[in-house]
Amino acid sequence: MTEAMDKLIPSLTNPEGQAGARVNLFDLDREGLERFFAETLGEKRFRAHQIMKWMYHQHVTDFGQMTDVGKALRSRLEQHCEIRPPNVVLDQGSSDGTHKWLLGMDTSNSIETVFIPDKGRGTLCVSSQVGCGLNCQFCSTATQGFNRNLSTAEIIGQVWTASKHLGNKTHHQRKLTNVVMMGMGEPLLNFDNVVRAMSLMRDDYGFGLANKRVTLSTAGLVPMIDKLSEVSDVSLAVSLHAPDDDLRTQLVPLNKKYPIAELLDACVRYALRKPRTSITFEYTMMKGVNDQPAHARALAQLMRKFDARVQREDAAKVNLIPFNPFTGTRFERSEEADIRAFQKILLDQKVLTMVRRTRGDDIDAACGQLKGQVMDKTRRQSEFKRKLEQQGVSDAA
Ligand code: SF4
């Protein structure tokens, strides 16, 4: 590297915008890292691949241990870069094999990441924001308000932390087989960082997961679903939770801006662009709220219509999620018999419908229970609302 380049590196800003801080290499996807090596360090692009293999396949964060990288380059990397995963504040295992990490994102905020092992697969539920501003009524995260978006490093760092803990071997004996962007936050409101992190999850030099094994779950930001379909091939899950607009608006206030018909139009466009992937519709089952036979029949009708528009049976999958209660909620979990009856109505209408088993109850790691520590949310909440207003979704939060 030339002297001029040495001078250039300290002028880079890290994702928090601190000029002169060391660049956290977890913030760069393969393309970004190749560019960084070529344009900033004056090195060959393949150096980026070597570093990525150390980072993501071997879980090495110390440049000194990267034995196939020359000493001079290693010392320059040490000087100007870092490989900094999130700080593990708490590491908790459940009796059913579920594992939860509380990860410190900065001095006052933390988020939760949960690993759920199942027959032949292991799924990691990853967060995209500290808190969430969309205010879905049945969601524990919503009670904390919104603080900030996570950086790419903070998102991929969740996968890295779990992968290291599990002794996951990329391309061999994988324990971590699937990632769902379904933790704290609305991933499509942190679009660039989420897309970059998902590309690292699927990159062969990263975690090497197949496209369909990475799922993004959204509350239904219609324009961003279209934008996602242009840049990524991941699976899509949509938080539906109600078969009609009146009820959905009560449960998911974003529905006021993007009602069900518009949301399903966007899902049809997504499914038509990704011919082999199904769209999963998440439906949280709440006693006496959305779990009656009439709801099931209306939902079945919506799903059948969706399959017909995509011209593929099983283009839509329904995932019934028994509600997980949390302190202060007014909702209750549906009775087991009502959930089974609801599922039967859908199955009888040939709608592929699964009931999600509740896991990690004893460590509050079940779906909808994730709750890190969100500080300073009042100021951030108004900032978030301002950003939503710019996107035309002011009445959603
Ligand atoms: S369900 Fe998802 S989008 Fe809705 S408030 Fe909770 S985290 Fe946000």
Automatic annotation (TrEMBL):
The keyword Acyltransferase does not apply. Keywords: 4Fe-4S, Cytoplasm, Disulfide bond, Iron, Iron-sulfur, Metal-binding, Methyltransferase, rRNA processing, S-adenosyl-L-methionine, Transferase, tRNA processing. GO terms for cellular component: cytoplasm. The keyword tRNA-binding does not apply. CDD domains: Radical_SAM. Its EC number is 2.1.1.192. One of its GO terms (molecular function) is rRNA (adenine(2503)-C2-)-methyltransferase activity. S-adenosyl-L-methionine binds at residues 185-186, 217, 239-241, 324. Gene3D superfamilies: 1.10.150.530, Aldolase class I. Residues 118-362 form the Radical SAM core domain. It is found in: Cytoplasm. The active site is at residues 112, 367. Binds 1 [4Fe-4S] cluster. The cluster is coordinated with 3 cysteines and an exchangeable S-adenosyl-L-methionine. Reaction proceeds by a ping-pong mechanism involving intermediate methylation of a conserved cysteine residue. HAMAP family: RNA_methyltr_RlmN (MF_01849). NCBIfam families: rRNA_mod_RlmN (TIGR00048). Specifically methylates position 2 of adenine 2503 in 23S rRNA and position 2 of adenine 37 in tRNAs. m2A2503 modification seems to play a crucial role in the proofreading step occurring at the peptidyl transferase center and thus would serve to optimize ribosomal fidelity. This is Dual-specificity RNA methyltransferase RlmN. It comes from Arenimonas metalli CF5-1. The gene is rlmN.
